[in-house]
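Components:
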Amino acid sequence: AQSVTQLDSQVPVFEEAPVELRCNYSSSVSVYLFWYVQYPNQGLQLLLKYLSGSTLVKGINGFEAEFNKSQTSFHLRKPSVHISDTAEYFCAVLKAAGNKLTFGGGTRVLVKP
Amino acid sequence: DAGVIQSPRHEVTEMGQEVTLRCKPISGHNSLFWYRQTMMRGLELLIYFNNNVPIDDSGMPEDRFSAKMPNASFSTLKIQPSEPRDSAVYFCASRGQTWQANEKLFFGSGTQLSVL
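Structure:
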């Protein structure tokens, strides 16, 4: 079975500073990788996904993530955050050709002015 | 499209009562997922359906939980009897045919359940 670890449960960051959210996964088979964002009192929305091809994936709202197979990581980055980026971010893994999306524990990002 | 619709948004009930959560997936989507979110356990997949058929219910905590999908446009998650430890946000999500480049999981806004 696959599993996902998000190493940081909370990340405080100042507005316009860069942010990196770490995600590591484990799986014995090929996987697809996702980052979702959850704004307060809302459901999850897809930020970006890696299925195949280029290991650098660009998503919405200026976020990007890099798939590193040797390190089994899929870290999320944004060079300059806004107050509106305050949310919880979830990394998720899906076994290729599978159906069960497994989520990490989430990382709360608090952007301070 | 209205997206995935869940009802109610909030539910407060007393221990021992029956609770029914409802979900209307996006029209045309053929897979439906029920997730539970708590501070302690994060997001857990409870059960998912494909073409109205339950495929994997290994995440359902115990026999007090049951889920049905009588047709392609409606699903319910029932807890009977409810317990305080069932307090959580329950999300429904749906997706289309395959995990291809443009497919993704669409989430509802969730039902905040509080069992007193």
